[in-house]
Design a protein that fits this description.
Elements lengths: L12 H10 L13 H6 L6 H12 L6 H8 L6 H5 L6 H15 L4 H14 L4 H10 L6 H4 L20 E5 L5 H4 L1 H13 L2 E5 L8 H4 L4 H20 L6 E3 L2 H7 L2 H4 L7 H7 L3 E3 H5 L3 H7 L6 E4 L3 H6 L3 H10 L3 E2 L15 H4 L1 H16 L5 E4 L2 H8 L6 E3 H10 L1
Parallel strand pairs: 1-2, 1-3, 3-4, 5-6, 5-7, 7-8
Helix pairs in contact: 1-6, 3-6, 4-6, 11-24, 13-16
Length: about 400
């Protein structure tokens, strides 16, 4: 695609990167068939091709409007279009630039600014955990829309108390929303790793991966969080004290694996972020090489299971084949269902900022899954798990929880 960037965009980091991505797009339209919002709305402006055209216009000097911002907001950033694209268009990187440029030029309505600011500050606050627990106590009397946002707790179970005794040590994420929402996921991860002779620890001064800020119009604050995590993790990794950062929420994993990209223009952190990348592993990546040893520790095999691969697992990280192969090797009776490549509608805070689209995608996903009559639905991301559970009575869990039960239950 030919471009004529506006003078203000030329010779800028954003302009150069966006132009290189735009030039790859040949407007073939393959992406339309795999875009969740286009499938629901049927509006090409709510498709990757349409959004690319709108972002191209902005970069060429056309003043964006609130309507432009709405079309970009409706994108789930699932990156399904990247998996489909024959030209290798890195749409996810382009939409990050486009949203930032539009946000600088279009002021949101006050209620949207308030909602996005409230979400950022609440979810990143130390008060989030206590407030979430209060929400659980009053959940039965809350409106249905709020009940669906509060996960029913599962017993976390015992945490390994002598994890430091293992020669192998790994880091897990700290100060995340997941332990407040479903602490059973981290606890199950720690027990499985402990059984496999791997200790877990948390780095001081590490925190949120940055995804919440990044996708709520606060990219500069997100980069500050990225730098803090690089500072907290890299010395421990390069000293050999720990061997990896293990991530059991694919939304966080996808964001962390993009640190090198997001910090590429920071002279103090570009190299350090790039050095961190090989150490960041999804829990499936870490366990896959020892699948036979894990299977030998299992007391039983899981039952009839539907695996929902989060977009951040399959389209961001390309780990769907590895994860499904691991689950099959561990004896999961995986059921195949249609449209497994499509987003469930969770997409971080999307279910709050775009509730109608989000619910429609959730119900479409659950209809396809329920046709297989699974005993359990498993996934790999806290957001997907809570979002899907809000629409079904079938248990929805992280697969590491199901594995933990098979090993220790």
């Amino acid at each position: 695609m030919q471009t004529q960037l506006a003078e203000w965009a030329r010779d800028t980091d954003d302009g150069r990167e966006a132009e290189e991505i735009l030039r790859r797009c040949v407007h073939c339209g393959f992406c339309l068939a795999t875009c969740p919002t286009y499938l629901i709305l049927g509006d090409e402006l709510d498709s990757p091709r349409g959004r690319i055209y709108q972002m191209k216009q902005v970069l060429e000097g056309v003043q964006p409007t609130y309507v432009t911002q709405q079309h970009l907001d409706r994108c789930l950033t699932c990156r399904n279009c990247e998996t489909t694209c024959p030209s290798g268009v890195e749409y996810g990187k382009l939409v990050d630039i486009g949203r930032r440029l539009v946000s600088d030029r279009v002021q949101r309505p006050w209620y949207q600014r308030w909602l996005r600011g409230a979400l950022r500050h609440l979810m990143l606050s130390p008060a989030f955990g206590p407030l979430y627990r209060v929400g659980r106590w009053v959940r039965p009397v809350l409106p249905a829309v709020l009940q669906g946002k509060i996960a029913v707790p599962r017993p976390a179970g015992p945490i390994p108390v002598h994890a430091q005794r293992h020669a192998r040590q790994v880091l897990m994420l700290s100060n995340c929303v997941q332990p407040a929402m479903l602490p059973s996921i981290d606890a199950a991860t720690q027990r499985v790793l402990d059984t496999m002779g791997v200790g877990t620890r948390f780095a001081a001064k590490s925190g949120c991966c940055g995804a919440i800020n990044f996708h709520l119009d606060a990219q500069a604050s997100a980069r500050d969080q990225m730098r803090a995590n690089v500072d907290a993790w890299l010395p421990l990794l390069e000293s050999g004290l720990v061997e990896a950062v293990i991530v059991n929420a694919t939304g966080c994993g996808g964001m962390i694996k993009d640190y090198a990209h997001h910090l590429q223009h920071d002279p103090a952190y570009a190299d350090r972020a790039a050095r961190l990348m090989p150490y960041v592993l999804d829990i499936a990546e870490f366990l896959a090489p020892m699948a036979a040893q894990v299977r030998a520790k299992m007391r039983r095999t899981p039952g009839r299971t539907a695996f929902h691969p989060p977009c951040t697992l399959q389209h961001w990280q390309g780990l769907r084949p590895l994860t499904e192969r691991l689950l099959a090797d561990l004896g999961f009776d995986l059921q195949t269902f249609g449209e497994a490549h499509l987003c469930c509608g969770s997409a971080g805070t999307y279910s709050i900022t775009q509730p109608t689209l989000s619910k429609g995608l959730r119900d479409r996903k659950l209809q396809a899954i329920q046709e297989t009559l699974p005993d359990t639905i498993v996934s790999a991301n806290i957001g997907c798990i809570c979002h899907l559970q809000s629409g079904t009575d079938t248990p929805v869990r992280h697969w590491i929880e199901t594995l933990d039960e098979a090993m220790h239950g």
